[in-house]
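Interim report, section 4.2 (structural modelling).
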Amino acid sequence: MRLDPSIYGDLLLSLLPELVLTGWALVLLLFVAWRHQTVRDLRITGWLTLLALLSTAVATWWLWWHHAGVQGLAAMVAADDFRWVADWIFLGAAALTVLISFSYLEREQLLAPEYYVLLVFGTLGMMVMAAGADLMVIFLGLELMSVAVYVLAGFDRRRARSAEAALKYFLLGAFASGFLLYGIALIYGATGTTNIGLIGAQVAFMGQPSVMLLAGLALLIVGFAFKVAAVPFHTWAPDVYDGAPTPVTAFMATGVKAAAFAALFRVLIAGFAGVAAWHDIVWWLAVITMIGGNLFALAQRSLKRMLAYSSIAHAGYLLVAVTAGGAAGMSAFIVYVIAYTLMSLGAFAVLSAKGRAGESDVLIDDLAGLAARRPWLAFALAICMLSLLGFPGTAGFIGKWYILIAATSAGQNTLAAILVLTSVVSAGYYLPVIMAMYMKPEPIEAAHVDVRLDRWGRAAVVAVVAGLLLFGVWPNRLFDLARSAGESVQPAATTTTTGQ
Amino acid sequence: MYGRWVLTALLVWPLIAGAVVLLLPGRLAKYVALAASLVEFALSVPLWWTFVPAGGMQFMVDRTWIAAWGIHFTVGVDGISLFLVLLTTFLMPLSILGSWSYITKREGGFYALLLVLTTGMIGVFVALDLFLFYVMWEVMLIPMYFIIGVWGGDNRLYAAIKFFIYTFFGSLLMLVAIIVLYLHAARVTGIYSFSYAHLLAQAPLLGSTAWWLFGAFFLAFAIKVPLFPLHTWLPDAHVEAPTAGSVILAGILLKMGTYGFLRFALPFFPAVALSQTVQLVIVALSLIGIIYGGLVAMVQPDFKKLIAYSSVAHLGFVMLGIWALTLQSVQGALLIMINHGISTGALFFLVGMIYERRHSRLIEAYGGIARVVPLFAAILTIVSLSSIALPGTNGFVGEFLVLLGSFRTYPIATALATTGVIVAAAYLLTALQRVIYNPLTDHANEKLTDLTPRELLVLVPLLVCILWVGIYPKPFLRRMEPSARQLIEQVRPGATQGQPVAGGQP
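Predicted structure of the assembly:
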């Protein structure tokens, strides 16, 4: 199905998932305006949110099923497999976040159903980012997502740490947006357009890139590096992740990161394939992010902070996929991001069960003896940890393997070696979690009595573990999806030559 | 017919049994686990007769697994892996029986992990697809990590994480090497496949990259063997592991390293492996392992640690035999791999049994117990003598063949390695004397009870093997010979012409 964006109906059709979700967001906004008092209202809003996410996923699926594509080069939005798969990842991450939020919000007495509305707006922003074929659209999506997540980070406003997290995130996020916008402006100055496809054509035509273009590209990468929390632009991440309510942290570590990466990928592969310089920049970013993230994580004693730093380390692995570039790199990114979303959300779900009201720090040692009291919960967390470590039999391994293949076939053997060596370091902080749960005795009798997930949280954890194990052993379908997604985004230079 | 399903069954059955055992209550778990491991052994025994002593892989199974990357589920055995598979299935029931009263907490989990471990170990030995091999290589790491970490001694957490990180470190670099090899073969032929035969055919065209790849494989396998400077995880892991864990570690896991050299590192990169530098380094490290391992064993106050260091020495002989690359030395190395599994396994069982009674592994805590526990003393003596390589026991055949075969290639190194045999006698006989002879001074030892029928049931099969291999090793050597010849021809064409054959065709 070819869609022509100059026809009104086709334009709407190409934005169908976003429109569906926007519609739902408005409905939810109206609903919570009247009903925002009781636990029951909160629950209903949660259910409506799940319904909204589901119907959006179906709309996405419909477009995917009909092989929707956009005609011409200068469209504002792209319609390709990469966008659909990315949308599913965001929707899935949001749905799992909703599932673990039910009991969390009630326990922490955060009886404000606006929480879910913000979640929906954040997801909408991510989808716009993945859809954007124009730097301005991507920027719009980014802002929509960021503003929603700033508020979510500070949602537990009575707690100082949460407020601090929101302020910190807002200030640094705004700063990063400034970088991004400045970069876009310079790129516009150099090429005369903000459309990614046209930029690609211009860049291919120019040959030697101008200084203004390079400066713009550098600023753009810095802006994205802030969003994905790559070292050395990561300093906000640990405090924000630590201070935000746990389900929000899970959402930030998975959805927000995936969205920023998806947009970065599209910009670099489709727009700047002709500029070799960004490979070097991203190469260095990847190296220091992997090394820094893993080494900082090693020093953490709080589980949540450890997961925060570990998410920085995983951003480093994803940057390796970016450096590898090409269809292989994009496919690797899709597989890894799916695996990472699952395992990270699983870990945060278990953490939110262990955290007590008021969110006192959960140290890794606080998990001691969990396996004896809550064998299934401990098993789930152990699987997540092994998957984060990249252990065979889990999806994390498949993802890492894919990135390694992409990197090696792009000739990046050194980067592949650094990736595996830093993975060894990561054993030093993932294993202690397993060790505490299985090999250490309970510190006091009944230390884990009130550790429990409600039925929806449990459903989320079961889904995560099943997904991790299934994709770890039988990733064939996942690969088909990732491959078609990866191949759907082509450097613009080749599309122009075939298109003209 | 049997040949078409047996390897798959050997891999799948323990997993199913393990899942069942995990859900059973403790008392019942060990019976079911024992039965499952006996079934596994029974399944594997016909391999011995149906195996045709010829080169090449047998009992092959080949199924597509992950088509996108050309990954197959390919398994098969030849004369090199056959005995390692049989050794694994043979030691598992004994390990389970040996843990009968030693393991008292979370029994279901323990026996389930042992069964999962079986799948991992057999998988490593039969995998003919490098992806599958890597997965199995890692999969066996987790059960062992838990076995040491949950059921181990006082210092178990340290030992467990050290064991894990050492192995993980080596294997991840191997992972990169496998991928580079895979992409290289794909670039040359256009076929994306992790198949062993496919990669083997393309490996000679690597050029200077071969050095890096060999280095990565070398590190992974050398840590596992363990070769001299990389051995420090071994004493910790062996000492802290529960009896069954030590037996399996020494008996089977260490063999994965030497097996890896035989199956992958040598045939893939013969030019690198046989270059002057690498030969010098490996032979020197093996020699250091033999002599240093023996000397350090001599001063150990802890019996279990003594056995652990003796493993370093034994595996040094294996490495020497492999690198000498004569028919006798390679067959001898293969035989030592089996012998070490049997003898050292038996030694760990014996130490575990006496530890259960006295709760001490220190040599000085005993003395003169031959009169109190005559059966134990007799068996310990026989097993120790086999470990020392006394003629008539299995140890002698293997070490003699290695020394004989290696002398043609490395005369000086072999001469030095011979002193290792003497050192072995020195540390084991001294320990033997201090434990079971000498005057009985400690009154706590007067009330020791002798071996129970269950314990005899664990030890007698091992004793039978010790004598069988010691007196009539021909059935073993005959089955190894064609594969060993094939390997040597692959690495050093024309090398086996006119070489004496150990136990070949009559």
